[in-house]
Write a structure and sequence with these properties.
Layout: H1 6-12, H2 17-20, E1 24-27, E2 31-33, E3 38-43, E4 53-57, H3 59-62, E5 84-86, E6 94-99, E7 105-113, E8 116-125, E9 155-158, H4 167-179, E10 183-187, H5 195-210, E11 221-226, H6 234-240, E12 245-249
Parallel strand pairs: 2-8, 9-10, 10-11, 11-12
Antiparallel strand pairs: 1-3, 3-6, 4-5, 4-7, 7-8
């Protein structure tokens, strides 16, 4: 399998009917350093009504939802907070803007297109910031969902369940479109095969996954429950497949001082 071509993948999302039949919101990196901008790209089908983008700075730091919070519900409590409006201008169905946060902290943006409401979380960090990434563990879709808390959450799903007809994938894909939640593909451990065989095996699965997700930047994470003594080529495999974030180390094969690491 050839090395993943990020430019070719970018071109795909503009022509694939799976993505152009619905409004889409694509973002740049959502973890920024102070002074950096975040880029937003939007798409709407012809004739669809849309609104401006509303950005809520420091929404978690200022949050006091009170009775507006409903476990498993939505983010209606945001409406009582101050926001900054960013207007959109669409040309041939596409619009792009950039936003520069004024200080470190947690931000969330909201956009309405047609009858759908979309949210995107992003944060600004400093050199001494500590970043936590929340993810599901036991169940692929725990209930109630955490969306009403305003806390970003990654979901993991076995690669074979990435199927448009699979009910769990359809639900997680809805979370992905409306909240920007990552769906991280989970692959089996392969300690006894060569690096080339692993690249082919994982690469075939990732090719399917990347054909179902609108933004190529959201297909660079992977989970493998690795039960190996040493690396055995996993790092090289992930690098060749365009993976920049991976997790899943069984604690039983780690030294006691490691605790229960996830990386």
């Amino acid at each position: 399998m050839s090395k993943w071509n990020i430019e070719k993948a970018r071109e795909r999302k503009h022509t694939d009917e799976k993505f152009t039949s619905l409004p889409q919101w694509i973002t740049g990196s959502r973890l920024l350093k102070a002074g950096e901008k975040i880029g937003f790209d939007f798409y709407i089908p012809e004739g669809m009504k849309y609104g401006s983008v509303e950005v809520f700075p420091h929404y978690l730091e200022k949050a006091d939802p009170g009775n507006s919070f409903i476990a498993g519900g939505g983010l209606a409590w945001l409406e009582d907070m101050e926001s900054e409006s960013q207007k959109l201008k669409f040309v041939n169905g596409y619009a792009s803007i950039s936003y520069k946060p004024d200080s470190p902290g947690n931000y969330i943006a909201k956009w309405i297109a047609g009858d759908e409401i979309f949210y995107r979380y992003f944060s600004v960090v400093e050199n001494d910031s500590v970043v936590f990434n929340f993810s599901t563990f036991a169940e692929p879709d725990p209930s109630p969902s955490m969306h009403a808390t305003g806390i970003p959450l990654d979901y993991r799903l076995p690669e074979e369940k990435f199927d448009l007809q699979d009910p769990v994938f359809k639900k997680l894909f809805d979370y992905h479109r409306h909240y920007g939640s990552l769906i991280v593909p989970e692959f089996p451990d392969t300690p006894d095969i060569s690096t080339e065989e692993r690249v082919r095996l994982y690469g075939k699965g990732l090719e399917k996954v990347r054909g179902l997700i609108p933004d190529i930047n959201d297909t660079r994470s992977i989970r493998v429950e690795m039960c190996h003594y040493l690396d055995k080529g996993y790092t090289e495999t992930f690098m060749r497949l365009g993976i920049v974030d991976h997790c899943g180390l069984c604690a039983a094969n780690g030294n006691s001082w490691l605790g229960m690491p996830e990386f």
